[in-house]
Amino acid sequence: MKTLVVCSGGLDSVSLAHMVAAEHELTRLVSFDYGQRHRKELAFAAEAAGRLGVPHHLIDMRGIGAALTGSALTDDLDVPDGHYAEETMRVTVVPNRNAIMLAIAFGIAAANGDQAVATAVHGGDHFIYPDCRPAFTNAFNAMQAAALDGYADVHLFTPFVDRDKAAIVTAGARHATPFARTWSCYKGGDLHCGRCGTCVERREAFDLAGVSDPTTYADADFWRHAIAAKGAA
Questions:
Q1: In order of start, what are the domains of the chain with their CATH numbers?
Q2: Is 8 labelled a binding residue?
Q3: Where does Zn(2+) bind (predicted)?
Q4: For residue 136, which of 96, 114, 127, 156 sits 20 to 30 Å off, Cα-Cα?
Q5: SS (H, E, C) 155-218
């Protein structure tokens, strides 16, 4: 199956790219610059494309991102610390982000004869991001079938949509993903902060998967306190 992977440069999407390269026919990586404060992730996506020997398409969505206001990922708002599932992480929602990106990715796939668009949405995203849930991905797949009817046959591939991030780490390790060459932290500093929701979730996923985490965190122990606080809530 000729498959395009939507790749942010994060652990999830880079692991997916390595999995697709091993199990299908990886054709290209597509990334989006929507003005995210952690846009350093895009360099890791470009690196992954080079490593896997496929083209990297970087789509400039900064004009659109500037209009999708109110998110800590694009505006001058503090990225909250703590476990990813906490209510406070809703400030990281960029409305319709995945829907917009996937629509563009499907157009690129159709124009290039690809058969699938793969995205690494997973079960841990369901709390907060409506465009990561199975109801959305199923409806989007049906919408694109209608949008491309008679022109192209492209399917949405979401192997992790009903699984957790630990399953992604397991799959990534199985396909020799260089986890140190991925970026998750929403704060975009020199190191992963170790405190924001994505850092806590990342560190917990390695622990649950029983895989050594090569990431250097500015605060390497906070994740344990965040998990304990979640359990006590």
A1: 2-232 (3.40.50.620)
A2: yes
A3: 185, 193, 196, 199
A4: 114
A5: EEECCCCCCCHHHHHHHHHHCCCCHHHCCCCCCCCCCECCCEHHHHHHHHHHHHHCCCCCCCEC
> pLDDT tier at 131 (50, 70, 90 boundaries)?
confident
110 contact partners, CB below 8 Å, separation of at least 6: 148, 151, 152, 154
**Crossing angle (nearest 10°) for helices 11-23 and 165-174:** 50
Does 184 count as an annotated binding residue? Answer: no
Distance from C-alpha of 88 to C-alpha of 45, rounded to nearest angstrom? 28
Say how far apart CA 26 and CA 21 lie, in whole Å. 5
Q: How many helices (H) and strands (E) does the chain have?
A: 8, 5
- Bridge-based pairing of strands 116-118 and 2-6 is parallel
Q: What is the C-alpha separation between 206 and 210, in angstroms, rounded?
A: 6
164 is in an annotated binding site: no
Ligand-binding annotation for 7, yes or no, is yes
**Is 196 assigned to a binding site?**
yes
pLDDT at 71: 56
The pTM of this model reads 0.91
Residues 64 and 34 sit within 8 Å (Cβ to Cβ): yes
d(CA 136, CA 114): 22
